[in-house]
Amino acid sequence: MTHKTPEFEALNELSARVGADPAWVQAAGGNTSIKEDGILWIKASGLWLMHARQQEIMVPVALDALLGALERADPLAEQAQHFVVEELNPSGLRPSIETTVHALMPQKVVVHVHCVETIALAVAEDAERLIHERLSGFRHAFIPYIRPGLPLARAIAASLGEDTDVVVLGNHGLVVAADTVAAAELLLEKVTAALVTRPRLAPPADLVALEHLALNSNYQLPEDPALQGLGTDPA
Known about the structure:
With 235 residues, this protein is α+β, with helices and mostly antiparallel strands. The protein has helices at residues 6-19, 63-71, 99-104, 116-122, 127-134, 150-159, 181-194, 207-214, 229-232; strands spanning 31-36, 39-43, 58-62, 109-113, 140-143, 166-169, 173-178.
């Protein structure tokens, strides 16, 4: 692949940074994309964002053809591999099932993460209220959980306003979009900061007693003392 525009390279840099932060992305989860010259470049299925500097992780998809299939509710739209630009994909990469989400966002750059702070709220029974309260200053939409693919794409299409650039997916994660990579990164940081949940302060553990109990056993204390809160927090 020879597609190396400055913004494309900037997206690879952002992808690697985001993918290396477990608060945003875990393992091969999450995806990023950029729209250039009628092509949607999106992270390939099964690859890791954190490897964006070391290997080709982006697969090219014909944007107008995919959007047309979505508008017709064509079942093929759920299988984005049918819209891959093969001559630009010598490695035979396959696009994510969430490609339709990226295609529907009109902005040039889209970043989808499984943000821990977002999911901590998005799994709550009153997730929609919590999200709307925290993101009242953002142009956002909340989508209750729905299966990724065509059902999710339809739900997002029905919920997007003209300037919506933040989408929270119930039980799932966060999508932000902007017209530059730098703006998308800034928006991601602002949104996740707005969604931060302050943990309860748990009573301290008796580490001396625990170390004594663990002596001459196969047990050991965790490296992160904050984990003791799982045992000492009454809730």
